[in-house]
Design goal:
By secondary structure, the protein is of the alpha+beta class. The protein has 2 helices and 4 strands, in the order E-E-E-E-H-H. Strands 1-2-3-4 form a 4-stranded antiparallel β-sheet, covered by helices on one side.
Length: 94
Amino acid sequence: MSAYKTQQRRLTHRGREFHFVTCEGQRANPAKGLEEVGPMWALMAAGKRWDVMAELGDEPEAETDRRLLEWLRAHITPRPAEAVHQGDPANGRR
């Protein structure tokens, strides 16, 4: 039995809640051509999982939250209504 303990974080970004969990790493499997992967933070949504970043075991929670929010800012774009509201020049409004 594994001693790995899964962590979870729920963060709000642009009015939406995002659910992140940690996933245990996997050993390399040369027969299948798979490289070793360390523990990861993953975004959970609609029953699917997307790897986000490496889990750093001794990292303070506040720093983990900061890194996850930074990832959200870089990868989650605003909804069209938010872009119009914020004066997106692509929509002809300022």
